[in-house]
Amino acid sequence: MSDQEYARRGVERGEMVPLSSVLRTVRAARPGRVVNVDLVRTTRRGAIYRVVVMGSEHDLWQISVDAERNRILGMRRY
Question: According to the CATH classification, is domain 3-77 in 3.10.450.40?
């Protein structure tokens, strides 16, 4: 099953939040342009969105978000 299909089914079952909600959370924490989004399936947490954001000074940040709770798990600068 593709990541897109996995996410769609998770949202339909109420097990994941929609990507649009995750992106609002990310933009509130780290303004900038979203340049990449990956969905990482884990055995312990279910799934994590990894979002890469380019800031105003062209700095890149990877932000990990719990796909079920829409909470930021961590941020790191590239």
Answer: yes
